[in-house]
Design goal:
With about 100 residues, this protein is mainly α. It has a single domain, classed as Glutamine-dependent NAD+ synthetase, C-terminal domain (Arc Repressor Mutant, subunit A), CATH 1.10.10. It contains four helices and no strands. The longest helix has 18 residues. The radius of gyration is 14 Å and the shape is globular. The relative contact order is 0.20.
Length: about 100
């Protein structure tokens, strides 16, 4: 869910949390959704991109699809999730 909306549409964390709340609001509280979305963002943007450093950093415009560094997905190896995590903290309440 999180991966799809980040990679396909580039939605902000607050929008993804909103969609997740409407999809699974009866099963998971907003606090739980926020917690796991934060873990996803940190892992996706900070921890998993270092392996891609064998290719040069550069933009790629596409309509979603593959996360292979040889095709659609281009991400810098030294990416940080700070901006995404800050937006999540600022715009999604802990209620």
């Amino acid at each position: 869910f999180n991966l799809y909306y980040v990679s396909r549409y580039g939605f902000r964390p607050s929008k993804i949390a909103f969609l997740a709340r409407h999809a699974w609001g009866g099963e998971y509280s907003l606090l739980v959704i926020k917690h796991w979305l934060g873990i996803f963002l940190r892992r996706f943007f900070e921890l998993s991109q270092f392996k891609r450093s064998c290719l040069p950093n550069g933009p790629k415009v596409g309509s979603g699809g593959s996360l292979s560094p040889r095709s659609d997905w281009r991400a810098p190896a030294d990416a940080e999730a700070a901006v995404w995590l800050q937006e999540l903290a600022d715009r999604v309440p802990d209620v």
